[in-house]
Amino acid sequence: MSLGVVRSLGVGRFLDWGVLNARGAAGGVLVFWDKRVLELEGMEVGLFSISCRFKNCEDGFNWVFSRVYGPTLKRYRELFWEELGAIRGLWSDPWCIGGDFNSIRFPNESRRGGRLSSSMRRFSEVIDDLDLRDLPLQGGPFTWSGGLNNQAMTRINRFLVSEDWEGHFKGAVQCTLPRPVSDHFPILLDGGGVRRGPVPFRFENMWLKEEGFKDLLKGWWQSLSFNGSFSFILAEKLKALKAILKSWNKNVFGQVGVNKKVALDKVNFWDGQEKLRPYHWRNWKLER
Asked: Where does the record place the Endonuclease/exonuclease/phosphatase domain (predicted)?
């Protein structure tokens, strides 16, 4: 994966990244982290995973995060389990693994149900052998849908954590998020360490796509006038421009946060309908 592709995803100056390149059309893995929060102390890239050893900048706590993409073919699955064991042998730090395992543990993790298979038992054995815990999933029982009319649904994505990792990040939970585009539900692992505060002002890229915005911006900047030192004038003009942009944004785009919530509520509704019953293209056409 090229640096240009990564930057197109919105990587800022405080973000660093590591990548496991895709094999063909599948299997690519990308990990981002905030350098103000985490210091990278080591990285290992395998066939099915990328693992990073981090140190928390706030408290110096060392831990390992592994992002995985498990094989879709059963004949490679044992190689995947062996790779996870090798990571455990490399580092003994608290450990968190997340991603698409392309495996399920129990029949109820698939909409079609069925019996407990040998591959399910093997997955659970690996989790036990590595002393990992499968955190309960909030927000719904499945993380992927596909097949004809999206009737197949399974829980192939998850986070697994060691006991000492969970002990440090007390109250950690994983939950599914709305999925506007993908056939996978994004999963949020909340370690309880995010500090809330006032939302900082941000220049939105969508403004640049609005016709005539650049001319407006130039006119606003040239119309602002203050007296004082260069640094004082610059600071005051930026402060005044921020107020103008906030007002313009509200008039042109409305309450973005509210609009986003409404859109995500709609996505959540249809995701919920899909989880409750098989969904057919014919029904969708009728309900429109």
From this structure: 21-184
Query: How is 163-227 classified by DSSP, letter by letter?
Result: HHHHHHSTT-EEEE---SS-SB--EEEE-S-PPP-PPPP---HHHHTSTTHHHHHHHHHHH----
Residue burial 180-215, b: 16+ Cβ < 10 Å; e: rest: eeeeebebebeeeeeeeeeeeeeeeeebeeeeeeee
pLDDT one-digit tens code per residue, 274-287: 555 554 444 544 44
- Domain-wise residue ranges, the chain: 3-190, 205-253
Per-residue pLDDT tens over the stretch 85-136: 999 999 999 999 999 999 999 999 998 888 999 999 999 999 999 999 998 8
Residues in the chain, total: 288
DSSP state of 148: G
Second-level CATH architecture of 3-190: 4-Layer Sandwich (3.60)
Q: Cα separation of 223 and 220, whole Å?
A: 5
Residue 141: DSSP 8-state: S
**From its phi and psi, is residue 37 left (phi > 0), alpha (psi between -120 and 50) or beta?**
alpha
Query: Dihedrals φ, ψ of 220, to 5°?
Result: -60, -45
